[in-house]
């Protein structure tokens, strides 16, 4: 004779248990996610500062070889393309692999002679708003 056990054991979660877990995860997400929202803008500002410093260093290397900074017409393209004329022999570039846009997708600005550095150049990102000046995330980030 066989004895059958009709006792069933349930190994599944109830709907209430699942809902409690979802609510707890929602509360945790609501408290943690806002702390990371500002880190994206901070990372963009830090990246722009690093890229400005890299471009400034490349311009200084170009100056050592060419005995001058690029003109306003040549701009930052002088870091990747040799200038026309006799100075092609002095140019030992490219001084950067490629010209990148700032973290907000705008081109870096270059002015020679600069307003902040009258004996050399100014290089800057216009920030999140893409316009000169601004406050907060829209502040210009430059070599001054």
Secondary structure elements and pairings:
Layout: H1 15-66, E1 109-111, E2 122-125, E3 141-142
Antiparallel strand pairs: 1-2, 2-3
Describe the 3D structure:
The chain has a three-stranded antiparallel β-sheet, covered by helices on one side. The protein is 36% helix and 6% strand. The mean pLDDT is 86. The protein has 144 residues and is mainly alpha-helical. The protein has a domain at 43-142: Glycoprotein, Type 4 Pilin, CATH 3.30.700. It contains one helix and three strands; from the N terminus they run H-E-E-E. The chain has one helix at 15-66; strands at 109-111, 122-125, 141-142. The longest helix is centred in the N-terminal third of the chain and has 52 residues, at 15-66. It is elongated.
CATH level 1 class label of the domain at 43-142: Alpha Beta
- If you average the pLDDT, what whole number results? 86
Give the ordered list of helices and strands.
HEEE
Helix proportion range: 25-40%
Quick structural overview:
This protein is mainly α and 144 residues long. 36% of the residues lie in helices and 6% in strands.
Short key terms for the protein model shown above:
6% strand; three-stranded antiparallel beta sheet; mainly alpha; 1 helix; 3 strands; 36% helix; 144 residues; Glycoprotein, Type 4 Pilin
């Amino acid at each position: 004779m066989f004895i059958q056990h009709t006792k069933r054991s349930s190994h599944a979660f109830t709907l209430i248990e699942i809902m409690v877990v979802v609510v707890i995860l929602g509360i945790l997400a609501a408290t943690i996610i806002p702390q990371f929202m500002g880190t994206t803008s901070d990372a963009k500002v830090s990246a722009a500062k690093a890229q400005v410093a890299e471009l400034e260093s490349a311009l200084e290397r170009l100056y050592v070889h060419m005995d001058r900074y690029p003109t306003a017409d040549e701009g930052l393209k002088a870091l990747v393309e040799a200038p026309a004329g006799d100075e092609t022999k002095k140019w030992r570039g490219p001084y950067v692999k490629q010209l990148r846009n700032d973290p907000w997708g705008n081109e870096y600005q270059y002015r020679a002679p600069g307003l902040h550095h009258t004996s050399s150049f100014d290089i800057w990102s216009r920030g999140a708003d893409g316009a000169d000046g601004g406050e907060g995330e829209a502040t210009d980030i430059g070599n001054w």
